[in-house]
């Protein structure tokens, strides 16, 4: 049995070979990639979809790329080349774009598929390990996925080549996403479930503690009332409000955190003579109720001194409540 050091060394060798294949492809990526993305984008803009195909390991890559395309705003389906020649070719429509993956660049199944499908769609583009193969002559543009060597020690099993082909598929998907202006809000609509969907859809308003659940005092409140409010609401801080905002809500003028109280204690016997205005933080960071919860989390953490809560205000500065770091943790956003 190999020693643990030999096992680790083999794993590192494989990753190095595949990483080198990706690095080499960066410099080789050129006009074929641009033409493919532009052609596919035009097909999508005209109302078509992307029909992705491949056989063997390339077929598995093609399935994954089709899924990535669909989830990032480019409608795509996978078409098995053998099934296509037995009736499934009916899925191809005149405005569709065909995206073909092949390691050899000359698979018989794909040659037959392209001959039959090319007249039915707007164009065909290929990602081929052999960009000079027979398939390239049937495509409008070709992206090379050639690699110097596979990670397989016998240079047989598709390893580095399939990794590179999948990475090129990702590059096509991301380029199309950028051209389409597909942003986080679009992504959220396509991913309503799971942690990712929750992070994209949850807003501050979904998690905040509103009026009646939040400590609100005037600037004239005595320090005893401040301490009692902090103890009662246990939200790391309270809001200091004065008068009314244009919305009719109490107007936020500051906040007092537990840290502010600890610092005020250094005044010793003068502490109990203080009022809220003496210890509050004026012009605190705030969020709107429609702010993404993950953005509120970033506001709390990406600052010189981290904070545990944020006041939630409306457009006129009216205080609506607070959002706590603990609320974001409980929602599974951290």
- Rounded Rg: 30 Å
Instruction: Sketch the major β-sheet.
Output: 5 strands, parallel
Number of alpha- plus pi-helical segments = 14
Overall geometric form: elongated
Structure description:
The chain is an alpha/beta fold and 334 residues long. It has two domains: 4-182, Glucose-6-phosphate isomerase like protein, domain 1 (Rossmann fold); 204-330, CBS-domain (Roll), CATH 3.10.580.10. Helices cover 44% and strands 17% of the residues. The strands form three sheets. Strands 2-1-3-4-5 form a five-stranded parallel β-sheet, sandwiched between helices.
Give a short summary of the structure:
The protein is α/β, with parallel strands linked by helices and 334 residues long. The protein has helices at 4-28, 31-45, 57-71, 81-84, 108-117, 160-180, 184-190, 194-201, 204-207, 223-233, 258-264, 276-279, 293-301, 325-330, and strands at 50-54, 76-79, 97-102, 123-128, 141-144, 209-210, 216-217, 237-244, 250-257, 281-282, 309-313, 319-324. It folds into two domains: 4-182, 3-Layer(aba) Sandwich (Rossmann fold), CATH 3.40.50; 204-330, CBS-domain (Roll), CATH 3.10.580.
Task: Summarize the SSE layout with pairings.
Blueprint: H1 4-28, H2 31-45, E1 50-54, H3 57-71, E2 76-79, H4 81-84, E3 97-102, H5 108-117, E4 123-128, E5 141-144, H6 160-180, H7 184-190, H8 194-201, H9 204-207, E6 209-210, E7 216-217, H10 223-233, E8 237-244, E9 250-257, H11 258-264, H12 276-279, E10 281-282, H13 293-301, E11 309-313, E12 319-324, H14 325-330
Parallel strand pairs: 1-2, 1-3, 3-4, 4-5, 7-8
Antiparallel strand pairs: 6-12, 8-9, 9-10, 11-12
Helix pairs in contact: 1-6, 2-6, 3-6, 7-8
